[in-house]
Amino acid sequence: MNNDELRSAVNDAIERLAIAERSKELADLRQQSLQPDFWADNQAASKVMQKITALADQTEPWLELQKGLNDLAELEQLNDDSLAKEINAQYQQLNKAFETLKKQMRFNQPYDGHNVVLSIHAGAGGTDAQDWAQMLLRMYTRWAEANNASVTTIDESAGEEAGIKSVSLELQGSYIFGKLKGEHGVHRLVRQSPFNADAKRQTSFAKVEILPEIDEPEAVPIDEKDLKIDVFRAGGHGGQSVNTTDSAVRITHIPTNIVVSIQNERSQLQNKETAMTILRSKLAQLQLEQHAEKISELKGPNEQAAWGNQIRSYVQHPYSMVKDLRTRHETSQVQTVLDGDLNPFIDAYLEANLA
Question: Does residue 259 have a pLDDT over 90?
Fold first, then answer.
């Protein structure tokens, strides 16, 4: 495409991605951050700064590209042959930038720009499944490190012999939910068991939850009367007490029977706030799955989607293959995938949904 066509395509993308609205929100937040009392509430200020960073990543490259194309159009209007080489070089550079940015157009669904609460739960398979859950934890952590996303552990429960029973993480990055939402589901591993003396082939399952982080109460309003809140003493690995006060919190959303339990070494208030964020995130994900407009319309999660309905299989024995059962994308490089090379699977899922 020529410069006019490229400029038209960029302007269309900017409109579809609501860059003007996001830029106004960014300007408002930046103005808010300049107020003298902005850091009086550290936690609230940190959330604002995170949002500023995310909005800047989403808007500024597009606005720079638009400005570059407008400047190029002005150069072209000079009709100066001596500038032809420079104009062509700039055009190639801007076109390349557009091809890179165009991937953002895949992220036009609710919550795609949100951070993520990622949870992994060991399923059927005993110690092997708990080891598999830890392998998935390593895989997603490696992916995050390679894709400029930060990882914070929210809660973790160790396995009895090896691995983990469950873990919850917060991942922060540009369009992180949009990128990872296709990882939501059951992951199946087939291998020779390292925990079996006969090295028999073992099939293990782990469930991965990818939730859009909803830390603003007004985004997903929850009726207090629909909650049952229990506090208890946090216990460490092997039953050891990690806290001598009742700091752990369990919140049950009665209409859907969703339960969120947080028991790390922070205060009861912090644990409750974290549990409420995760509950809102779970309800938001459930809304997406059930196409419900209101929280009151939600039914409980579909338990049949637990073990057995895998979205992806990782086979290490008797052959090597990772295969996504929805997009049919596959590779024989199992270890490379387990080392965090997930982008081909992410891209295949996004392209399939875009199509």
Answer: yes
Distance CA 353, CA 1 (A): 26
Sign of the alpha-carbon dihedral angle for 216, 219, 220, 221: positive
Domains and CATH numbers, the chain: 3-106 (1.20.58.410), 116-211+305-354 (3.30.70.1660), 217-297 (3.30.160.20)
DSSP 241: B
CA of residue 287 relative to chain centroid, distance: 17
94 touches 6 (CB < 8 A):
yes
Residue 21 host element (H or E): helix 19-33
Q: Beta strand 185-192 with 310-315: parallel, antiparallel or unpaired?
A: parallel
How far apart are the C-alpha atoms of 276 and 254, rounded to whole Å? Answer: 14
Tell me how far apart the terminal alpha carbons of the chain are, to the nearest angstrom.
22
Query: Would the pLDDT of 306 be above 50?
Result: no
Distance CA 115, CA 334 (A): 27
**306-336: buried (b, 16+ CB within 10 Å) or exposed (e) per residue?**
ebeebbbbbbbeeeeebbbeebebbeeebee
Of the candidates 349, 318, 322, the one whose C-alpha atom is nearest the C-alpha of residue 336 is 322
Q: Look at residue 189 and give its three-state secondary structure.
A: strand
Question: Residue range 171-193: average pLDDT?
Answer: 92
